Amino acid sequence: MSHTQDRPDQTRDANVEAAVEDTFPASDPVGNTTSQGSRAVPPQDMMPKAASTEGADLVSFSMSFPNQASAKLALETLVREGPIDRRGAEITHEGDKASLRVSAPRADAERLKSLLERSPEAQ
To answer: Disordered: where is this region (predicted)?
Structure first.
């Protein structure tokens, strides 16, 4: 009997690593492959389909901001507190400034505008 069989704690680390390579945890699925991710369905299938804008009575309004970061913060506030669908808003650049354009139902437009106007860097 060899010395390492009597004392498994003194087995070389390389042998131990080779023995357990690719065996733990056996129940976890492969994280990512080139053809399929770890999700059961593609992310675009999980998103709700875009609502038809016909007859939705949408209005658009915009607000200027000194930079893109402040426009993005204002958009995050609208999404969180509005709440609005992020797909109904767009940040555009105008030189050094940024503009946030929002399309929302007419009934919510004034309330959402006031949320934007309370933004500290709104212009």
So the answer is: 1-53, 85-106
